From TrEMBL:
Major location (coarse): membrane
GO cellular component, one term: membrane
Record-level Gene Ontology MF annotations: glucuronosyltransferase activity
InterPro entries, per the entry: GLCAT14A/B/C, Glyco_trans_14
Protein name stated in the entry: Uncharacterized protein
Localization annotation: Membrane
Lineage: Eukaryota, Viridiplantae, Streptophyta, Embryophyta, Tracheophyta
Pfam families: Branch (PF02485)
Superkingdom of source: Eukaryota
Length: 166
């Protein structure tokens, strides 16, 4: 008993170990700790969201539409663009398809860049067109993590969910 009272006295003097006298009722006992609910598990990894620019030129309307459908996922955002070399009829047709598509209308995440920019692949116009698409996407939503610039010819081999494109 002398040792226990000495530890108790030393503990009060130096406050090294928590004293049971200072604990509130129920804390520190195994029964109380077992009855408490466990903490929630840590959140899993965040699934990334993508923002795409899918662009094309004269004669690329159907390829662009096919690529957009292959890439499409409701969590992502898309800007489609046919450049100034495309006839006005193709650009109007693309805008009508986007507007009338039931899934695109439901999620509201496919945007038409209605300003037909001249895009040359050896100059600053490509960068300008890409920045314009980013501005459109940022104005519409900031709910994306990565930006991907594709042409109408860039057909994916695997979907975002990892399923083969057949």
């Amino acid at each position: 008993m002398g040792l226990i009272s000495s530890l108790h006295t030393i503990n009060h003097i130096f406050n090294i170990f928590p004293s049971r006298v200072n604990q509130t009722a129920g804390q520190g006992f195994a029964e109380t700790k077992v009855s408490q609910s466990p903490p929630p598990p840590p959140p899993g990894p965040k699934i990334p969201r993508f923002a795409y620019l899918v662009s094309g030129s004269k004669g690329d309307l159907d390829k662009l539409w096919r690529t957009l459908h292959a890439l499409y996922h409701p969590r992502n955002h898309y800007v489609v663009h046919l450049d100034l070399e495309s006839p006005a009829e193709e650009r109007l047709e693309l805008a009508a398809r986007v507007e009338k598509h039931p899934i695109f209308a439901k999620y509201g995440n496919v945007y038409m860049n209605s300003k037909a920019n001249m895009v040359t692949y050896r100059g600053p116009t490509m960068v300008s067109n890409t920045l314009h698409a980013c501005a459109i996407l940022l104005k519409r939503s900031k709910e994306w993590d990565w930006f991907i610039n594709l042409s109408a010819s860039d057909y994916p081999l695997v979907t975002q969910d990892g399923q083969s494109m057949s």
